[in-house]
Amino acid sequence: MIEAICSFRNAASLAALAVALAGCALLASPGAAPPSLFALDPPRESARPRDASAQTIDIAPPGARAGFDGPRMAYVTRPYELKFFAQHQWVESPARMLAPLLMEALLRDGRLDAVQSGASLAAALRLETEIVALQQEFAAHPSQVRFTLRAQLLDLAERRVLASSAFEAVEAAPSDDPYGGVVAANRAVARVLDAVAQWCGENATRPASGTPAYGRVR
Which residue intervals of 28-172 are DSSP H helices? Predict the structure, then answer.
């Protein structure tokens, strides 16, 4: 009886191992279609003439909240539950794509001379940002994309916060699918970038307010 039980257990273990290996083979199948990759590359507005006396602003690498810190494209169908598309994703994390876009937006605004973090030891200001949300929402019809970015402007010489704020844009998707979400995301990001650049230019010479602000981008 003991031998029979052991044989049964060995057979069961081998069967479980075979199933696991078959699962791995399926996951690693060379014939599986690669995911579709998309980029954040919003349309550019025309640039203003550069201010000759513009202060240098250091663009810190953007951060991102949990769930938005990788290349997966997020969507929601009900509050508090974040899901991800299986066959569609960003070409890299939104935070990494956002860094050069922030610099371009500030340079187009013309009031500040934006540089990548650490590129200039003489930077007078520093912009720190964090992606709070970048998600396609299917609770409404048509679906919409929400992009929320928190920003903080620092005076490096005086080691103080000049201003802090959060920016949010919501854009309707042209179609209720991942590609429609990509189009809407780029529109939302473009609006937020323009608002952040304007906000930085306005607050660079103002006294520190110390009061965070939050507002939807119009």
Answer: 94-109
What is d(CA 92, CA 6) in angstroms, rounded to the nearest whole number? 50
- Which tens digits make up the pLDDT trace of 65-104? 999 999 999 999 999 999 999 999 999 999 999 999 999 9
Same structural domain, 77 and 15: no
Three-class DSSP category at 184:
helix
User: Could you tell me the sign of the dihedral formed by the alpha carbons of 19, 24, 30, 32, in that order?
Assistant: positive
Pair (44, 26) in one structural domain: no
Average pLDDT over residues 45-62: 82
Give per-residue burial for 50-88: e unless 16+ CB within 10 Å, then b.
Answer: eeeebbbbbbbebebeeebebbbbbbbeeeeeebebeeb
What domain count does the chain have? 2
Q: What is the pTM of this model?
A: 0.79
Domain range spanning residue 86? Answer: 37-216
81 and 189 co-located in one domain? yes
What does the alpha-carbon distance between residue 111 and residue 133 come to, in Å, rounded to a whole number? 28
